[in-house]
Amino acid sequence: METRVAVIGIIVENKESVDSLNAILSEYGEFIIGRMGIPYAKKNVNCITVVVDAAQDTINTLCGKIGKLEGISSKAAYSNV
After folding, report:
1. How far apart, in whole angstroms, are the C-alpha atoms of residue 2 and residue 10?
2. What's the predicted TM-score (pTM) here?
3. pLDDT tens string 24-73
4. C-alpha span between 60 and 6 (Å, rounded)
5. Pairwise CA distance, residues 21 & 48, whole Å
6. How would you class 18 by CB atoms within 10 Å of its CB: exposed for 0-12, middle for 13-18, buried for 19 or more?
7. With CB atoms 3.0 to 4.6 Å apart as the test, which of 4, 10, 44, 68 could cross-link to 48 if both were Cys?
């Protein structure tokens, strides 16, 4: 199966959804290369960057699950490799 490297940007506006977000990320842990979170208290949001190496369908599914969480949005940027 061909995989791609992608960066998933996540904005958390509803902290009540964080447990669900972490559960989803744990479910896809085998594909995660690294993760960085930055709290931004001034705007009361958290910004998370997750780098993955997975099949494009897997990345799309992961982003879709994250995007369905209340108060959380995500977008993926794909490498050409």
Report:
1. 24
2. 0.91
3. 999 999 999 999 999 999 999 999 999 999 999 999 999 999 999 999 99
4. 10
5. 11
6. middle
7. 10
Residue pair 54/3 in contact (Cβ under 8 Å)? The answer is yes
What per-residue string of b and e applies to 25-41 under the rule 16 or more CB within 10 Å gives b?
beebeebbeeeeeeeee
Distance of CA 6 to the CA centre of its chain: 10
* Tokens coding 50: 């997750």
Q: Name which of 7, 5, 20, 1 is nearest 67 in CA terms.
A: 20
Largest CA distance in the chain: 43
**69 DSSP 8-state letter:** S
- Nearest-angstrom CA–CA distance, 20 and 66: 9
